[in-house]
Amino acid sequence: MPRVREFDTDEALEAAMRLFWRKGYVATSMADIYEATGLKAGSLYAAFKDKETLFQKTFERYAERFRQTLPTAQTGVAAIKTWLALQARLAIEDQHRAGCLIINTVTEREAHSPATQALAQGRMREIRDFFARNLLLAVQAGELAGDTDVDARADALLGAVVSIMTLGRAGADERTINHVARAAADALHS
Questions:
Q1: CA 91/CA 94 separation, integer angstroms
Q2: Range of 31's domain?
Q3: How many CA atoms lie less than 13 Å away from 142 in the CB half-sphere?
Q4: Is 59 contained in some domain?
Q5: Which band of pLDDT confidence, cut at 50, 70 and 90, is reported for residue 73?
Q6: pTM score > 0.70 for this model?
Q7: CATH code at position 173
Q8: What are the pLDDT digits (tens) for 28-39?
């Protein structure tokens, strides 16, 4: 008869996610995970198999929250500007300087399995797709010129948001982060 879990899986995933987010995958030891989650090795391995599988589950948990930051009540230029401003604010207000788990994972690429790398790249595509979709809507609505290179602009906006998130983790000051966000937003009108 299988043993009944004696811990809250959601609480364990939340604790592990915050730990990975703050320290990164490489710097997070199994001892750190045991301490953060309160789980013993046997329970952790029975529930999550290994560190990489646990990380993947926490990564998807984070990605779902991240998706919820994408504007749904706005489209086009307004949606892009709103989201850039939100990401700048989140980077500035992040007291732990944890940055973004998606970007942090991409920068630790070599430490991850191909499956985890694919998860991270998929989330990067989601961010770029958000920009491309809203740029296209802006062109269709006449907010941007008809000859706007949507692909190039989506790539540039992806670069800007990666920069904002990375600068936040690096401890950049509010002025710098806001300058990057404003420059990206202002470029929508050039």
A1: 5
A2: 9-50
A3: 0
A4: no
A5: very high
A6: yes
A7: 1.10.357.10
A8: 999 999 999 999
